[in-house]
Amino acid sequence: MGADEIYRCLVENTDFVVYQIDAQGLISYVSSSIEIYSGYKVEEFVGRSFSQFIHPEDMQEVMMRFQDAAAGVPGFSEFRAIHKNGSVIWVYASSRPPAGAHPSGVIGIMRDITERKRAENALRESEDRYRDLAENSQDLLCVHDLTGKLLWVNQAPARALGYTVEEMIGKSLRDFMDPSYSRQLDQYLVNVEKDKVAKPYFAVLTRGGEPRIWECHNTLRTEGVASPVFRGMARDVTERIRAERGLRQSEERFRVALKSVPIKVFNQDINLRYTWAYNLPLGLSEADYIGHTDADIFSAEDAAVMTIIKRKVLDTGVGAHEEIKLNFHGQKYYFDLTAEPLFDSSGKVVGITCACMDMTELRQKTEQLRALSKKLAQEKIYLESEIEAEHQFEEIVGESTALKKSLNEIKVVAGTDSTVLILGETGTGKELVARAVHRMSPRSQNGFIKLNCSAIPTGLLESELFGHEKGAFTGAVSQKIGRLELADKGTLFLDEVGDIPLELQPKLLRVLQDQEFERLGSIRTLKVDVRLVAATNRDLNKSVAARQFRSDLFYRLNVFPIRLPALRERREDIPLLVRHFVHKYCVRMNKKIESIPRDTMTALTDHSWPGNIRELENFIERSVILTNDSVLYVPLAELMQDEAGNSTNLEAAERAYIIKVLRECGGVIAGPHGAAVKLGLKRTTLQSKIQRLKISRSDYEDESERTGS
């Protein structure tokens, strides 16, 4: 094989392209390897302009290089060419003029450098990305030598400290650190060179002198550099350190607070295993809880109850508050449990946090208090019954036989629903007796309604008693509920019932008989359930005889009459009443009266008191007003004047009444059937009255008794 053939064989089989371009820029020769790079066949190249295959943006640069080569200046260029499929490929071309005396055009070789260019571009892009990342990173990046001299920093540390990058490069780390950390810096440089890695905390100072804490992660680099350097990355953790310090202080305060209160706190995960616990109950340690469930610690029954409560919190994401009971080592414990859900950053429930308070002692104390309260309630009921038995009549003061007889009658009738007629002179306390009857009756929890029949004009009495409809009469601008309706299920007290006009008496009789009535101006019959208590100072028998009071109404009212004795018939009660009224008005007038003269009390006891208790009370009130020291002053002159005007008639009546009783008793004064008992007086009191009124045996013994015949 000749040299030309060897050369041609070598050219045709190499991986680079050999080409020749004539003086007109047309391709006169190209090796077959062009097909591999460009997709064109050899015959598609030969005879065509080389510029047809060059990328337009590189055209000017390439043509200048070929012109230089044609002029005898060899050179090379890298440019983009157009592949047959339209894609861009990178090629490297080396050109020179052909050999000969009169060369024209150029010859050269060309190879595909597309992959290399792609790798270079990728490397540049990667370097650019890393450079951008480093320059704009919020992390504090630096490179320093073995002495701590800064060789490179990014913008973050310069910005954080208030310097420029140029101001920092070339300076030592020591120039930016808190002087108190100099020893730590020296130790760091030693350790990082020895261990190749270090994670120190540095205290640095800003340009303005503000201290900051940096957490660093630095490594030693020895490869690819002329001398070893340290690569450093840091983060400003000042706020985190402060928050952690505050959290530790808060947690310590929390722990101290929890130690002084019976509150237990703990967390459990999604499987209800304990992950944290503090101030643990039942004397168990943290190891007894952490990693365990309630079923591992408590009885199956107790664990099931707690699991239901906690599982509901996990399932619903809503907290729960329950009281639970635990049986532990044979003892009962009670806890007030509060459970709240724990959420992750996405809002998913990942566990629960709980607080519970040991209520065992409180529960025991509560049970003891409940038992004591029940016992006290029973004792209260007993004592109230005893007090009620002793003091059922409140302000009805007295211990005389006559009064006790009336009070016994009240006790007998109070428990029934029977109508009661209270008889007695003015001022004997008829309203107090009526209230006592109501208070001791089964109706005591309902109303006590009173109506004074003598205090209301005749024309208005019917309206007051029965009520009226709107427009029932002139002036009836609205409906009015009468006293009968108000007293439904309770007690109606009609004072001075003897003064009810005859025309109203049939209507009242109907109420007593049928418990029904109509309001004035209404045709609707109303039913009521009323217990009637009536009172009068009149002799109703005489009123009936005089046809001033209906006999049928009298019989209805006179079911259970109670006669109240006049005050002159129970003189032994006067000292009690005097002391009672003195105390009452001293309290009201803020006075202090400690004694009542004996002669004063005697005078008050001997007075006849025609106005009875009301007159006595008013007189004592006036006496308290006039008293200026601790001894009661009584204007006795007023009593003497009253006696002067009334003594003759009163003494005559009293003398005649005592003589009448003595005759009925056969002259017997003492004993159960004697005149003293019947008059409600002590034996000695009656004897004194007989002497004072000059009653002799001849006044009450008939002639046969005196003569013995």
Gyration radius, in Å: 63 Å
Tell me the number of structural domains. 5
| Span between termini | 206 Å
Which CATH architecture of the largest domain would you pick?
Answer: 3-Layer(aba) Sandwich
Shape: elongated
Largest sheet: 6 strands, antiparallel
H/I helix tally: 28
CATH fold title of the largest domain: Rossmann fold
CATH superfamily of the largest domain: P-loop containing nucleotide triphosphate hydrolases
Point out poorly predicted stretches. 703-709
Mean pLDDT: 84
User: Helices and strands: which structural class?
Assistant: alpha+beta
How many strand units? 25
**Share of helical residues:** 40-55%
List the helices and strands and how they pair.
Elements: H1 3-13, E1 17-21, E2 27-30, H2 34-38, H3 42-45, H4 59-70, E3 75-82, E4 88-96, E5 106-112, H5 114-136, E6 140-144, E7 150-153, H6 155-161, H7 165-168, H8 182-195, E8 197-198, E9 201-205, E10 211-221, E11 229-236, H9 238-259, E12 263-269, E13 274-278, H10 286-289, H11 294-297, H12 300-316, E14 320-328, E15 331-343, E16 349-358, H13 360-390, H14 401-414, E17 420-423, H15 430-439, E18 448-452, H16 458-466, E19 467-468, E20 480-481, H17 483-486, E21 491-495, H18 505-514, E22 516-518, E23 525-527, E24 531-536, H19 540-545, H20 551-557, E25 560-563, H21 574-589, H22 598-606, H23 612-626, H24 636-664, H25 675-679, H26 683-692, H27 697-700, H28 703-707
Parallel strand pairs: 17-24, 17-25, 18-21, 21-24
Antiparallel strand pairs: 1-2, 1-5, 3-4, 4-5, 6-7, 6-11, 8-10, 9-10, 10-11, 12-13, 12-16, 14-15, 15-16, 19-20, 22-23
